[in-house]
């Protein structure tokens, strides 16, 4: 009996999130990390030493890595390079697990999705909160029809203090701030629950009163992205969504995620406490349905599913299994392109100080 060949994986970018990818891959017996690329000389070698991967090769040019015998790659670089690296990897015949956010602009996201289709490739975007079983429970409740026609959704979340630094706060590298970093999780939770309806227009406002103030951030002089954003999004199914996100604020919360339906409403709170909590980059904390029963207004707590899953590991393993089995993208790029359209619209609307239209390809 022959032993199946291992799934051969490369990693592009060696920042903090790349270490999480490497640790996850190393815990999958049939995956082999064969190469790592980083544009900074010596950084890939250092990464391999830290991760104890003596057999893997280090590169400073991602194209050299893509020229090797690989099945798939994790792309873990600053946001502005996601587009070109993804397109290069797909055209080289590699399956792609791309860390969020998908891209900087909608045009980039469209090109990435079209490239995946043209090359018959696989592009999956890294949203590990989907692997919380309560996210599936939430989706089942909403799509069961128990709420009736959903006409209004409110999502987002806010950290009282939770601003990152480095590449996250520089527009030339990140493209956007809180919206791209944690807002994309909020949007995915709501939009995936709803089946990713098509957005039509966005009216938005953004600011960075905390990040650009040295009283609150040590890198204030380099902080040129938003630390707060709010938007009203209209969809083609006669629904509106209020999206609000914050890295820092003088408030304890921006509220729960709400789904208002003609027959019932659902309130969802995130898991966790403290300055860095209050956003949807982890688990669901609680769910409550608001409805009428025999003519009386009542509230029904929805029991959440207790689990100890490592959501990040689940994300990486799901991608590796899809590569091994020739399956579809676990979190397909053409879905996430829709939320990228919203983030792109928020940026354009905030700059123009007016409502803008979202134009998606058919």
Layout of helices and strands:
Layout: E1 7-12, H1 16-26, E2 31-37, H2 43-50, E3 57-59, H3 62-66, E4 72-75, H4 82-91, E5 95-99, H5 106-118, E6 123-126, H6 133-143, E7 150-158, H7 171-174, H8 178-194, E8 199-207, E9 228-235, E10 240-246, E11 257-261, E12 265-270, E13 284-293, E14 296-302, H9 311-325, H10 333-352, E15 356-357
Q: Whole-number radius of gyration? A: 21 Å
Strand content: 25-35%
Termini gap: 48 Å
H/E topology pattern: EHEHEHEHEHEHEHHEEEEEEEHHE
Describe this structure in words.
With 362 residues, the chain is of the alpha/beta class. The protein contains ten helices and 15 strands. The protein has helices spanning 16-26, 43-50, 62-66, 82-91, 106-118, 133-143, 171-174, 178-194, 311-325, 333-352, and strands at 7-12, 31-37, 57-59, 72-75, 95-99, 123-126, 150-158, 199-207, 228-235, 240-246, 257-261, 265-270, 284-293, 296-302, 356-357. The strands form two sheets. Strands 14-13-12-11-7-10-9-8-15 form a nine-stranded mixed sheet. Strands 3-2-1-4-5-6 form a six-stranded parallel sheet, with helices on both faces. β13 (284-293) and β14 (296-302) form a beta hairpin. α1 packs across α9, α5 (106-118) runs antiparallel to α10 (333-352) and α8 (178-194) crosses α10 (333-352). It is globular, with a radius of gyration of 21 Å. It starts with 6 loop residues before the first strand and ends in a 5-residue tail after the last strand.
